[in-house]
Amino acid sequence: MRNPCFLPLLILSLSVSGQTPAQEDLLPYVKPIIGTQRMGHTYPGASAPFGAVQLSPDTDTIPYEQNGKYNPDVYKYCAGYQYDDKTIVGFSHTHFSGTGHSDLGDFLLMPTVGELKLNPGTAAQSHSGFRSAFSHATETAEADYYKVKLEDYNIWAELTATTRVGFHQYTFPASDQAHIILDLVSGIYNYDDKNVWTYVRVVNDTLVTGYRQTSGWARTRTVYFAMTFSRPFNGYGSRKYDRRTAYHGFWGHFDERHNFPDLAGRQLRMHFDFKTQEGEKVKVKFALSSVSTDGALLNLRTEAPGWDFDAVRRQGQDAWRKELNKVRIDASVADKQSFYTSIYHAFINPTVYMDVDGGYRGLDQLNHTANGFVNYTTFSLWDTHRALHPLFNILQPARNADMIRSMLAHYEQSAEHMLPIWSNSANENWCMSGYHSVAVIADAIVKGNTPFDANKALDACIATSSRRSFEGLGSYIDNGYIPAEEDGTSVFTTLEYAYDDWCIAQAAKKLGRMDVYAAYSKRAENYKNVWDPSVGYMRPRLKDGSFRKDFDVLSTNGQGFIEGNAWNYSLYVPHDPPALIALSGGNKRFVQHLDSLFTMDLPDKFFAETEDITRDGIIGNYVHGNEPSHHVAYLYDWTDQPWKTQERVRMILRKQYGPAPDGLGGNDDCGQMSAWYIFTALGFYPVAPGSDQYWLGSPAVNSAALQLENGKTFTIEARDQSDKNVYVKRVTLNGQPLNRRYLTHQEIMDGGKLVFYMSGRH
Fold this sequence. Notes:
By secondary structure, the protein is of the alpha+beta class.
């Protein structure tokens, strides 16, 4: 039996009344350990919501290269922590959450007792260095709190954090040889030349300041610090691991290894020595700044003026409770754990990038002050424009507006005069394709979240889309596609540009700039120029207009796409599904294509050379672990079989997410995987950000209440929802039928009640 409401049209309704899920403490449902194994690349440490400090254990220090070549094992350590590892090297203060490339891992601290060791050693021979064995049995991971026993030293390590300050509490055994090591060599995705320069000044016997410059994914990155101890150290020392240079001045007049307060070099480790009583707690506060050591000190004294570790932990966890309470759901314990861990992951990035007085280092490497907004960094836009920023437009509209202001500041400071592509720490990394900050900006403009100069923002979008020297953009503008000879990802980059251009057109229409709307609406159709009707797929096209003969629709390597194949990426026209269906030969053939995506078998050989795609993240040939496929299951909503969207999304939820260390089927990518989960569990998804529409699926919660910043509440109820009842018979929105298969942004922001009537039959 077919779904009577979804076969012809979906019926929606909205009602102001309805019960809200019972109030309870949601913090215990957050499991930071989710996604720490295999491809998740998350970390279980301590951070405030959107915090500049991401304090977490690192479990190994393997190099980015071996024998002059890329070391593929380093990919497992994108977040610094691997659940299967048996040792901890230390606790560093900066991490990326779930990225497929990495950097950071700044300022690693490690407490030890006994013989002083200033080398981390290796996992195979842990006692050769300062690392320690640990067990998950003594490990506690919560939002803004981490605790573990360092078994080799009988030390309990506890971590918490404010926005800009990491707070360590180490409980020592009795020892005349207790040490806290500050490793300024260590980093994530490290190599010999990554550390450009390091400076440390020992101000007194409790305060140390300094900075480190690195050249990695971010090539001109400087981080300042201020570190203070809860009690004086008895002595301190350092070791340099610099390669010998032709000239090194006359610092040899001093013994820099012992109690010398003025240190500089490329590779530096320090130790601070104590005598401890049994059970004595030595605490360390470690503040960061992009501006200066004075800025770090100001952050430290403002955010963590005292030494009450538990009070700082309570403050941080209360901040997380406030964020978690923006959505209250009724569901099973396992589903609550997956849902609230997804909220947690979604609210880690982007990260605050300014001192408490508003100062920050800009893209021009000058110091600036953020006037009237909070400056953010860590923009993984190729991923997060799809669902994370649309989620923010519902649950975090003020923050999202500040993130856009941060993007506009980036644009003003950019030598290329472009909006961010993938930016972090006053650096543009140029990672991945497209110019997806325009999708974030357009989504906010179309949805009316514009406490910024929207026309100025649109001008920045136009300028970015006109930068002819950027990744084949000149050819795209001239030809309507990027020739395969010019770019290894020519097809997919063409598709992404076309979608971004559609976003610009939507923003222009909203602002009444119809000349821009007309021009970019035409550019938005460029996806048609790489569609080969003879095979029914997107295909690399040559300069002469012909399609490349050497072509494999299943291979992910060298076929004009990035981290995927033609079979799945030929569905990447999120802004115009009806036209894509027509290109594909109509409804019947399009449904067959979608069906085959989920049911076929993709042998490992077809993605063997693509490290971002593993079997864990694949269902058939559908690559959920790679974000460009995230809208695909919802495309059935444009066909005569929309019930298959309901069936597929519930299947994906079960197979790709779960409350376990391997509970993510792919990189979380700064919250995008988690944002997909949140939307889909609630029953709707933004197929094309830049539109005000959220297309309906099948809710996996019994009920939910969204507490909106405008003071209103939007509630969702899924009657008779279960693992078997995944099909939607009808939907009501405020009691009135609405004959369409999507929900609008305004309908959510107006508050009310959305009811799904569920069934085990379609």
